C-alpha cells in the first residue's frame, strides 16, 4: 500500500543541546491532525565502519561508553566533519580509533537510530585492504582492537558488553553483503 505523506501545516523549532527539536503540525489523508516531535542532529551525519582484517575477520574496538558507564565492544564510528565524504570520515575514524587505514572503502547503506522521532542517519562503510596507520583522535585513551570472525556473530550478540544496535545491525548487513558477493562470483 502506498500512502501519501502527511501534510505539514507548520514547524516550530527550539534548541535541545546538540540537537534541534522540531514540532510538526501534521494532517493525515484521513483528516486526522497530530503534533509530532523530532530531533535533528547538528552536523553532517555519522559513519559506522566495518573494517575487515581479512575475508572472515572484522575488527571491533573496546571503549568506555559513558551512557552505560562500562566498556563496550563495538565498531569504529564517529561524526562526519564539514567537507568530508562518508568514505573520508570512515578512513579518518578508522585511523584514529583502530590504528588502521583502508585502501578500499565502500558505503553500503544508511542506518537510522529511531526513525519515528529522529532524523539522524549513520552511513555504514565497509573497509577492506587495511594497512597500519594511526592518527590522533579525541578519545581519552587508546582503544583496544579486538578481531572477531563473522561466522561467530551468534556468540558476539549474546555478550553483555556488545549491545549497541548500530554495531549489531552493521555486522549482520556486512556478513550478508559479503556472502551475496561471494555467491555472485
Automatic annotation (TrEMBL):
<dbReference type="InterPro" id="IPR000086">
    <property type="entry name" value="NUDIX_hydrolase_dom"/>
</dbReference>
<feature type="domain" description="Nudix hydrolase">
    <location>
        <begin position="39"/>
        <end position="175"/>
    </location>
</feature>
<dbReference type="GO" id="GO:0006754">
    <property type="term" value="P:ATP biosynthetic process"/>
</dbReference>
<keyword id="KW-0378">Hydrolase</keyword>
<dbReference type="GO" id="GO:0004081">
    <property type="term" value="F:bis(5'-nucleosyl)-tetraphosphatase (asymmetrical) activity"/>
</dbReference>
<dbReference type="Pfam" id="PF00293">
    <property type="entry name" value="NUDIX"/>
</dbReference>
<dbReference type="GO" id="GO:0006167">
    <property type="term" value="P:AMP biosynthetic process"/>
</dbReference>
<dbReference type="InterPro" id="IPR020084">
    <property type="entry name" value="NUDIX_hydrolase_CS"/>
</dbReference>
<dbReference type="InterPro" id="IPR051325">
    <property type="entry name" value="Nudix_hydrolase_domain"/>
</dbReference>
<protein>
    <submittedName>
        <fullName>ADP compounds hydrolase NudE</fullName>
    </submittedName>
</protein>
<dbReference type="InterPro" id="IPR015797">
    <property type="entry name" value="NUDIX_hydrolase-like_dom_sf"/>
</dbReference>
Amino acid at each position: 500500500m502506498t500512502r501519501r505523506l502527511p501534510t505539514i501545516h507548520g514547524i516550530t523549532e527550539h534548541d535541545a543541546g546538540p540537537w534541534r527539536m522540531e514540532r510538526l503540525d501534521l494532517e493525515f489523508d484521513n483528516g486526522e491532525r497530530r503534533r509530532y516531535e523530532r530531533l535533528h542532529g547538528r552536523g553532517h551525519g555519522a559513519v559506522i565502519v566495518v573494517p575487515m582484517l581479512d575475508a572472515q575477520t572484522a575488527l571491533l574496538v573496546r571503549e568506555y561508553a559513558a551512557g552505560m558507564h562500562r566498556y563496550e565492544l563495538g565498531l569504529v564510528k564517529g561524526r562526519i566533519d564539514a567537507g568530508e565524504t562518508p568514505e573520508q570520515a570512515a578512513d579518518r575514524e578508522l585511523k584514529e580509533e583502530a590504528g588502521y587505514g583502508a585502501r578500499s572503502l565502500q558505503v553500503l547503506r544508511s542506518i537510522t537510530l529511531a526513525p519515528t522521532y529522529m532524523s539522524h542517519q549513520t552511513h555504514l562503510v565497509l573497509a577492506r585492504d587495511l594497512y597500519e596507520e594511526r592518527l590522533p583522535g579525541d578519545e581519552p585513551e587508546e582503544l583496544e582492537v579486538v578481531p572477531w570472525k563473522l561466522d561467530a556473530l551468534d556468540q558476539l550478540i549474546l555478550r553483555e558488553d556488545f549491545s549497541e544496535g548500530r554495531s549489531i545491525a552493521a555486522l549482520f548487513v556486512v556478513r550478508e553483503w559479503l556472502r551475496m558477493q561471494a555467491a555472485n562470483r
